[in-house]
Amino acid sequence: MSEDSHPADSPTPCQDIQGDGRWMSLHNRFVSDSKGKEPDVLFVGDSLVQLLHEFEVWRKLFSPLHALNFGVSGDATQHVLWRLINGELDYISPKVVVLWVGTNNHGHTPEQICGGIMAIINVIHQKLPHAHTLVLGLLPRGKNPNPLRERNASVNALVQAEVASLSHVSFLDVDPGFIHSDGSILHQDMKQPLSRKHAV
Amino acid sequence: MSAEENPAAEPAPVIDVQGDGRWMSQHNRFVQECKDAEPDVLFVGDSMVQLMQQYEVWREVFSPLHALNFGIGGDTTCNVLWRLQNGELENIRPRVVVLWVGTNNHEHTADQVAGGILAIAQLVLSRLPRSKIIVLGLLPRGEFPNPLREKNAAVNNLLRASLPQLGPVQFIDVGGSFVHSDGAISSRDMFDFLHLTASAYRTISTTLHELLLQMLEEMPQERRASLV
C-alpha cells in the first residue's frame, strides 16, 4: 500500500489503488476510536505496530498500560505523518507515543527516512507538547545481508544522533540479536511482510 | 480459458523490487522443507494461509494433522503456480492440499482469477494424483461494500461451478459470517478489513478442520515406502 514517489517528510495519504478503501477505513476508525478513549500510551507506525495488536503479547503487556494501536501495514513515514496531522492525535493526550516506522520507505535514502521520522516527531510534539516520544529502531530484514539492512542501520544511527539532544524523545533499539554470526536471520524469528514474529 | 490466454494462469515468480530477496528466501525454504518433511496436509496460498501459522490455532488444530504451510503474503495465482512448478511439490505426498489464493490478483478479472485457481488445482492433481484438494473461497474485504467484494464473490461463484468437474476437489466458502446486516465488516474479525484476527481464524478453522478430518479418514494411509 505504500508509495515511494513522495518525499518522506511530506504528509501523504495512501491512494486507494486496490479499490476497497481500507487505508482510509483504518484512519477513520483510529480517529473515531480516539474520541472515546483516554490512552496513556499510543503506538503508531506500520505493520510491525499493527500486528503487535493481534498477538497475546498485546493483551499481556500493553493493554494494561491503556494503550491504543494506530499501526497500518505498509505505511511509510509520509503516510503516518498524514494520519497524525489529520485527526489521529486530536482527541487524546497520551503520556507516551511509541513510533515505529521507516522500513517501508522504499526509494528513500537513510537521510530522507530520518527526515520523515523527525517530521513525525515534530508533529507529535506540536500536538501533544507534554508527551514523550519513544522511537523504535528499524529491525534488520531479509534472510541474508542485503542493502535494506544497511539502509535500516543507517537510519537508526541518524535518528539516534538527532534525538540525542531532545529531552522529549528517546530512541530504543529493540533488536535482541536477530542476526546470527553467519549474517542470517531465522524464519522462526521473522516471517515475511505481514507476519513478523514479535519476539518482544 | 487456456493457460496461454489467461494471464492469471501464467506462472511467475515475484521480482525482488525492495532489495532483500525475501520472497525467494521463503520459496527456497519451502523447497528445503519438502525434502525434510512428510506432510499429510499441505496449505498453499497467500497471506490468508501464511498468517494462519502465526496464531495459536495452527499449533492446536493443524500441526497435529502434520501440516505444512507454504503461504506467502501478497502472492497471486501466478506466484503460487510458479512456486508449485519449481520445487514446492517435490518429494512430498500430502493426502490433502488446501489452496487459498486469488485476493491479490488485482490486475485480473474474476474469470481470469478463477481460471488461475483452476490451473493450480489441475497442476496439483497432475503431480499428486492420489491427493484431494480443498479450495477456500475468497473472503469479502474492505469495511463497506466495494468492487473487490463483488469481484471475490464472482470468483467464488465460478469456482463453485467449475471445481467439482476436476474430480477430488472440494470448494468451501468460509466468509459467510463476516459481513453484517449493514454490509460492514468488523475489525474484530479482520483487523485491517482484509486479514483475519485470531478469533476469526478460530471460527473458520472449525469448518476447515472438520472437512480435513473427513477427507483424511476417507483415504487409506499410504505406506511410507520410499517416494519415487
Automatic annotation (TrEMBL), chain A:
Domain SGNH hydrolase-type esterase per the UniProt entry, residue ranges: 43-183
Gene3D superfamilies with a match to the protein in the record: SGNH hydrolase
Enzyme class: hydrolase
Catalytic function, reaction form: 1-O-hexadecyl-2-acetyl-sn-glycero-3-phosphate + H2O = 1-O-hexadecyl-sn-glycero-3-phosphate + acetate + H(+); 1-O-hexadecyl-2-acetyl-sn-glycero-3-phosphocholine + H2O = 1-O-hexadecyl-sn-glycero-3-phosphocholine + acetate + H(+); a 1-O-alkyl-2-acetyl-sn-glycero-3-phosphocholine + H2O = a 1-O-alkyl-sn-glycero-3-phosphocholine + acetate + H(+)
GO cellular component term of the entry, any: cytoplasm
Cellular compartment(s): Cytoplasm
GO biological process: lipid metabolic process
Keyword ATP-binding: no
Molecular function as annotated in GO: 1-alkyl-2-acetylglycerophosphocholine esterase activity; platelet-activating factor acetyltransferase activity
Keywords: Acetylation, Cytoplasm, Hydrolase, Lipid metabolism, Phosphoprotein
InterPro entries (alphabetical): SGNH_hydro, SGNH_hydro_sf
E.C. no: 3.1.1.47
Pfam families in the cross-refs: Lipase_GDSL_2
CDD domains, alphabetized: PAF_acetylesterase_like
Region (Disordered): 1-20
PANTHER family given in the database record: PLATELET-ACTIVATING FACTOR ACETYLHYDROLASE (PTHR11852), PLATELET-ACTIVATING FACTOR ACETYLHYDROLASE IB SUBUNIT ALPHA1 (PTHR11852:SF2)
Family affiliation: Belongs to the 'GDSL' lipolytic enzyme family. Platelet-activating factor acetylhydrolase IB beta/gamma subunits subfamily.
Function: Alpha1 catalytic subunit of the cytosolic type I platelet-activating factor (PAF) acetylhydrolase (PAF-AH (I)) heterotetrameric enzyme that catalyzes the hydrolyze of the acetyl group at the sn-2 position of PAF and its analogs and modulates the action of PAF. The activity and substrate specificity of PAF-AH (I) are affected by its subunit composition.
Subunit structure: Forms a catalytic dimer which is either homodimer (alpha1/alpha1 homodimer) or heterodimer with PAFAH1B2 (alpha1/alpha2 heterodimer). Component of the cytosolic (PAF-AH (I)) heterotetrameric enzyme, which is composed of PAFAH1B1 (beta), PAFAH1B2 (alpha2) and PAFAH1B3 (alpha1) subunits. The catalytic activity of the enzyme resides in the alpha1 (PAFAH1B3) and alpha2 (PAFAH1B2) subunits, whereas the beta subunit (PAFAH1B1) has regulatory activity. Trimer formation is not essential for the catalytic activity. Interacts with VLDLR; this interaction may modulate the Reelin pathway.
Name used for this protein in its record: Platelet-activating factor acetylhydrolase IB subunit alpha1
Recorded name of the encoding gene: LOC109092360
Automatic annotation (TrEMBL), chain B:
Reactions catalysed, as given in the entry: a 1-O-alkyl-2-acetyl-sn-glycero-3-phosphocholine + H2O = a 1-O-alkyl-sn-glycero-3-phosphocholine + acetate + H(+); 1-O-hexadecyl-2-acetyl-sn-glycero-3-phosphocholine + H2O = 1-O-hexadecyl-sn-glycero-3-phosphocholine + acetate + H(+); 1-O-hexadecyl-2-acetyl-sn-glycero-3-phosphate + H2O = 1-O-hexadecyl-sn-glycero-3-phosphate + acetate + H(+); 1-O-hexadecyl-2-acetyl-sn-glycero-3-phosphoethanolamine + H2O = 1-O-hexadecyl-sn-glycero-3-phosphoethanolamine + acetate + H(+)
EC number of the protein: 3.1.1.47
Organism: Cyprinus carpio (Common carp)
Gene3D superfamilies to which the protein is assigned, alphabetical: SGNH hydrolase
The SGNH hydrolase-type esterase domain, residue ranges: 43-202
Name of protein: Platelet-activating factor acetylhydrolase IB subunit alpha2
SUPFAM superfamilies assigned: SGNH hydrolase
Main location: cytoplasm
A GO-annotated cellular component: cytoplasm
Keywords: Cytoplasm, Hydrolase, Lipid degradation, Lipid metabolism
Keyword check for Transmembrane: no
GO biological process, one term: lipid catabolic process
GO molecular function annotation: 1-alkyl-2-acetylglycerophosphocholine esterase activity; platelet-activating factor acetyltransferase activity
InterPro entries: SGNH_hydro, SGNH_hydro_sf
Localization per record: Cytoplasm
Family listed: Belongs to the 'GDSL' lipolytic enzyme family. Platelet-activating factor acetylhydrolase IB beta/gamma subunits subfamily.
